[in-house]
Design brief:
It contains 10 helices and 4 strands; from the N terminus they run E-H-E-H-H-H-H-H-H-E-H-H-H-E. It is mainly alpha-helical. It has 3 domains: 37 residues, no CATH class; 94 residues, no CATH class; 119 residues, no CATH class.
């Protein structure tokens, strides 16, 4: 397991030649440490994450792992939960939710400063909301309503590396690339945004019809839905982000999509 972690081999430095006299030989034999020295190579961030993932993946129910701080624990759990190769990443969602809530309270009172790479406000709140959804604590009337909530959290943010915001940006970029590729005419480089907005809520029936239509559209754009909880949330959020872009720059496409999905209520509001 640990052998799979990419690393640079240590570089030993040996004393040159044989002892020159008996005193030097005695001094070498009496040394408590090794007669050669290793150059210690500090682990990179990816190496640290891989080792942490191995530890968490193989941690038994009765075992425990000690972290230097709550910040370190939160960073490690976030990284582990975002890596789709970790098949048991959902096992730590309840703990991640508890730590996220505690850390948010401490941050609000000024007792804990932002030292986490993904602890920008948008991503922090996104994690709190996601863990509540995945643990079943937070529920929404429809898939659409949930997507709107997540979209408002990630809208106009600069995603930190290895974050849910970054996953959202990746999926949305794939959608936009596919849409531009299949568009009948090139999209204007400069356009005046329209004043309309997506409605903030849809019933479950209308939401189901809309997402059923949108998922078929996503397949045509070569954007596939992953069977992973956090990725599904960001996939839904990216669909809302795409619809929001269409509302501003090509509202006729949103109206056509709503008609094709047979929605019983308008999807735009002015």
């Amino acid at each position: 397991m640990f052998m799979d972690v990419k690393h640079v081999p240590p570089l030993p430095t040996y004393p040159g030649g044989a002892p020159k006299n008996e005193e030097e030989l005695a001094a070498i034999v009496a040394r408590e440490e090794d007669i050669f020295e290793f150059k210690i190579i500090k682990l990179s961030v990816p190496q640290s994450r891989e080792i942490n993932a191995i530890m968490l993946h193989h941690l038994p129910e009765t075992g425990s792992v000690t972290f230097l701080s709550k910040t370190s624990m939160l960073r490690t759990l976030r990284s582990f939960s975002l890596d789709f190769r970790n098949t048991n990443r959902q096992a730590y969602v309840p703990l991640l939710r508890i730590i996220s809530e505690d850390s948010m309270e401490e941050t609000d009172t000024g007792c804990m400063k932002a030292k986490i790479e993904s602890e920008k406000p948008a991503d922090f709140m996104l994690w709190v909301t996601a863990t509540k959804v995945l643990s079943g604590e937070q529920a929404y009337r429809s898939q659409y309503d949930r997507g709107v909530v997540f979209f408002l959290l990630v809208k106009n943010t600069q995603p930190p590396a290895g974050s849910l915001c970054e996953e959202y940006s990746r999926i949305l970029s794939s959608i936009m690339d596919g849409y531009r590729r299949l568009s009948d005419s090139p999209l204007p480089s400069v356009a005046v945004p329209q004043k309309g907005e997506l409605v903030r809520s849809l019933s479950k029936a209308n939401s189901d019809r809309l997402f059923q239509f949108m998922e078929k559209w996503m397949k045509n754009l070569a954007v596939m839905k992953l069977e992973i909880a956090t990725a599904v949330l960001m996939y839904e959020t990216a669909i809302i982000g795409f619809l929001d872009w269409l509302v501003k720059y090509q509202p006729q496409c949103v109206i056509a999509a709503a008609l094709s999905a047979q929605l019983t209520v308008p999807i735009l509001e002015y």
